[in-house]
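Design request, tokens follow.
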């Protein structure tokens, strides 16, 4: 029912002698629906901003790497001979450039696949501390202090699982995070237990939705890795989240070929 129609309906039943408490409950319900919708729009705008910001950073990194490779190639071309050390430097830079381009492409692909959920404010796709991740706010997934997934949360996890399971050759870690307000309940002695239990709950659902359990791990970080200011309501809300981290493959990291074969420079 649209907000204006709901108000009209409430006014009508009020004129027919409906209890004042019923009227106030309907008004409160309407206000909550409007607040949730406003927050959803805000989350969607923030998700798009984060994606655009990350993509711009990746493009800048790629351009800087290309410029460096071009300059190095020009310097080397001026020499009558190229030393083995110079060849190695060029090969290493080329490998880094290929890895950077592959990472940028993977990020663009993930954003495209999650576009409808990003636009709806259900999640964000980010690169943080060198890791690609899908971030879901806890208000979509859980009620405060609870670990039972809400219906909307189950639907969101099912959609996420369907997309991530199609990314071949990757493992994922489900990470639970809280704000810095200590939980006080008989079931959870601290935010460590709560964040871990939530991560496990999401992991179990992903497996039930078809994800190979060998590709998953779960971890709880309590309030130790905040992304917002815990002194504000908005910051604490941002910190209460589930993140599904795309685990990097070691052979994609610069220098790992030498490390795994025991070679040193």
């Amino acid at each position: 029912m649209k907000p204006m129609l709901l108000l009209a309906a409430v006014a009508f039943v009020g004129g027919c002698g409906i209890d004042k408490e019923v009227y106030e409950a309907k008004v409160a319900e309407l206000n909550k629906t409007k607040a949730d919708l406003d927050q959803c729009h805000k989350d969607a705008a923030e998700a798009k901003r984060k994606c655009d910001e990350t993509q711009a950073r990746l493009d800048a990194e790629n351009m800087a790497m290309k410029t460096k490779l071009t300059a190095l190639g020009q310097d080397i071309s001026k020499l009558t001979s190229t030393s083995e050390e110079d060849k190695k430097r060029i090969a290493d830079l080329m490998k880094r450039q290929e890895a950077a381009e592959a990472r940028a492409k993977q990020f663009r692909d993930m954003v495209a696949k999650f576009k409808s959920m990003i636009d709806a404010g259900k999640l964000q796709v980010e690169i943080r501390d060198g890791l690609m991740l899908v971030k879901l706010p806890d208000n979509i997934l859980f009620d405060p202090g609870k670990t039972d997934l809400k219906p909307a949360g189950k639907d969101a996890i099912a959609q996420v699982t369907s997309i991530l399971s199609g990314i071949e050759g990757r493992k994922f870690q489900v990470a639970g995070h809280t704000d810095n307000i200590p939980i006080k309940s008989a079931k959870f002695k601290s935010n460590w237990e709560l964040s871990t239990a939530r991560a496990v709950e999401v992991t179990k659902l992903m497996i039930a939705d078809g994800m190979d359990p060998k590709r998953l791990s779960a971890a709880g970080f309590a309030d130790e890795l905040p992304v917002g200011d815990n002194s504000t309501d908005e910051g604490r809300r941002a910190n209460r989240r589930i993140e599904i981290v795309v685990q990097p493959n070691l052979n994609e990291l610069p220098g790992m070929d030498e490390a795994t074969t025991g070679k040193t420079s």
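Comment from the thread starter after seeing the answer: thanks! Residues 147 and 197 are 7 Å apart (CA to CA).
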